[in-house]
Design brief:
The chain is an alpha/beta fold and about 500 residues long. About 30% of the residues lie in helices and about 20% in strands. One of its GO terms (molecular function) is metalloexopeptidase activity.
Length: about 500
């Protein structure tokens, strides 16, 4: 079948024509994908690579640590062994960049009444700040802002019980974090010198799962506003529900001596390529994206201190290795680029850096296919982020991906998570976002959240390998079609994100 312009296919709704491009065309017949175990995308290889990168050996691959760097060297060696060429800096597979970190110093102290609290262990500091405070603590319970306004809080530390629920459709976790930030800001503006939040039962569940993210401080790229040393301001403390009995007692003194430090250290993107076969199209790139980092080693949960991140995102790492081997077997007309981003868990830092300073001309990147958590939940379900307005920045690319899914593996696609009304705001939480923001067609493949997300229970043994293989084939088929189309996927000129 001759190739037709994608815009025409989309305009006429000819999904069947797109399917033909993937299943019956001469290009598709050149593809190494057949679906059996002898292909480059097979369960045995995926399982081997998943257990290697997602096992305890790399200690959770925390961004900016030696564990992340060791894992990155391992990935680069697999890319080299598969036949992919280096496409990082200075003829290597690596593009190094700096993470800027701002945190409380280990010498910082916090005391409430007779309770000496270890900073970010017994009590969470919501934001690193320089502060020296000695003030009486006043407990206002679940008082409304109007009720608090009647209390003399000037020059005092204010303790309050967390209460309330979201009314605008966001998740409770996002609501809670916004509450910690915004309600504290209002109280400090009204004259309080410190704010102490005490968890209720619902907030305690979030405290137990998520409070560890505050202990490291804040991360960004050098120059980011959030990692500059802040001016002295009142500390905001978050206590577990188990402290409620003593934290609300009258007549206590709040004492804090907090100091902030900031420093930079390296993270890394791993970049590999394979040239295309077409004299003209080989100057353009289909970029396959994922991230290699996770949360590292933290306080033990049920005796396990390693946050392996098997699904998040060793599955993506294994998938890209398999896709790379498939392209080595049969190169496409366009070149392909594989980017493993560092420090994604620190705020998409690696992809932000690469999107701003790519190792190939930015205008030569025709599409980004991002792999994020590919191996959990129902075996026949998945999601494609960036497939719906306002998140869809290329109808062409989305239609190719949808056609690839219909060709194989025919997942039932969950569209709720891509909507701007979804409480988790999932579209904004993976590396495709960095590329969409700079005007490159971008989509994200994912099998969505689960109860082990960002816990030590995200282990390789819990991954559905057959499902991982099917998602990997879907990613490959999409990329194969993009690599061989005469036209690059067009951007939607009206694309504009809601935030």
């Amino acid at each position: 079948m001759p190739f037709l312009p994608l815009a025409r296919l989309v305009a006429t709704g000819c999904l069947s024509a797109l399917l033909l491009l993937l299943t019956n065309s001469a290009v598709a017949q050149r593809s190494p994908f057949t679906g059996d175990k002898r292909t480059a995308i097979n369960e045995a290889d995926l399982k081997r690579d998943l257990f290697a990168i997602g096992g305890d050996h790399f200690r959770g691959r925390e961004g900016g640590t030696l564990d992340e760097l060791r894992a990155s060297v391992w990935i680069a060696e697999q890319l080299r062994a598969s036949g992919l060429q280096p496409a990082g800096d200075d003829g290597t597979y690596f593009q190094f960049f700096h993470i800027q970190r701002t945190r409380l110093t280990p010498a910082s102290t916090l005391r409430i009444g007779t309770h000496q609290l270890r900073v970010n262990q017994d009590a969470v500091l919501v934001a690193p700040t320089n502060a020296s405070v000695a003030a009486p603590l006043v407990y206002v319970g679940t008082a409304t802002p109007a009720e608090v306004a009647k209390v003399d809080i000037k020059g005092k530390a204010v303790a309050l019980q967390i209460s309330g629920a979201p009314t605008d459709g966001i998740s409770y976790r996002r609501y809670l974090f916004a509450k910690l930030r915004d309600q504290a800001a209002d109280l400090l503006k009204a004259g309080a010198v410190a704010v102490v939040f005490i968890s209720d039962a619902k907030a305690q569940a979030i405290y137990e799962h998520w409070s560890h993210i505050f202990e490291r401080g804040r991360y960004g790229l050098p120059g980011d506003a959030n990692v500059k040393i802040p001016a002295s301001q009142g500390p905001v403390v978050w206590l577990p529900a188990t402290d409620a009995s003593w934290a609300q007692q009258a007549g206590q003194q709040f004492t804090a001596n907090l100091a902030v430090e900031t420093f930079a250290y390296p993270s890394v993107n791993i970049v590999a390529k394979l040239p295309g076969t077409d004299a003209q199209l080989k100057n353009e790139y289909v970029l396959f994206s994922t991230h290699q980092d996770h949360d590292g080693v933290r306080a033990p949960v049920a005796g396990d201190s390693i946050y392996n991140g098997a699904d998040d995102n060793a599955t993506g790492c294994a998938a890209l290795l398999a896709v790379g081997r498939a392209f080595v077997q049969k190169p496409g007309r366009r070149s392909v680029l594989f980017v493993y981003h560092g420090a994604e868990e620190r705020g998409l830092l690696g992809s932000r850096y690469y999107a701003a300073t790519p190792t190939v001309p930015k205008q030569a990147i025709v599409a980004v296919l991002n792999a994020e958590m590919l191996g959990r939940n129902a075996p026949d379900s998945a999601a494609l982020l960036g497939s719906q307005v306002p998140h869809r920045n290329s109808p062409d690319l989305v239609n190719i991906a949808l056609a690839a899914n219909q060709a194989s593996p025919k997942f039932k696609l969950d569209t709720e998570w891509d909507k701007p009304t979804h409480p988790e705001g999932w579209y904004f939480r993976s590396d495709h976002l960095s590329y969409a923001r700079v005007g490159i067609p971008a989509i994200c493949y994912t099998t969505l959240l689960h109860q082990d997300y960002h816990t030590p229970k995200d282990e390789p043994e819990r991954i559905n390998i057959a499902k991982l293989a099917n998602v990997t084939r879907w990613i490959y088929l999409t990329g194969w079609a993009v690599a061989n189309q005469p036209q690059r996927p067009a951007l939607d000129p009206s694309f504009k994100l809601e935030r």
